[in-house]
Please model this.
Amino acid sequence: RVVGSVGRSGEFDRDFMPTRTGGDRWKRVDRAFHHGLDLPPVTLYEICGGYFVQDGNHRVSVARFQGVEMVEAEVTRFHPRSPACACDVGWILGRVPGAPCGAPCS
Model:
C-alpha cells in the first residue's frame, strides 16, 4: 500500500488526490489511462511494508481514483534496524508522524 510520497507529501492528500486545483498533469495521466496507453512503471521505496512514491505520483493518484489495486513498479526496499530508524526515514520522506509499519516514534 502506498502511504506517502518522497518530497511531495504536501501535494497529495491522504487519498492521494492532488491538493492543488488545476491538475493539468493529473488530467493528462487520466486521459492516457482511459485510452489504454502504456505508462512507465512507478518508482517506489518500501519501508516496513509501506510504499513511498519516488516517481509516478500522478500515475498512482489516477490508479487509486480509478480503483486500480496494483500498478507496475520498480521497488527499492529499505530495512531499518529499529522502529526509531523507520520513523527517521519516514520523516525524511515526508511522512510525519509515525513509521509506515505503525511503530511508535520516540
Remarks:
- The beta strands are 2-5, 42-47, 50-55, 73-78.
- Confidence is low (pLDDT under 50) at residues 96-100.
- The longest helix spans residues 24-34.
- The two ends are 24 Å apart (CA to CA).
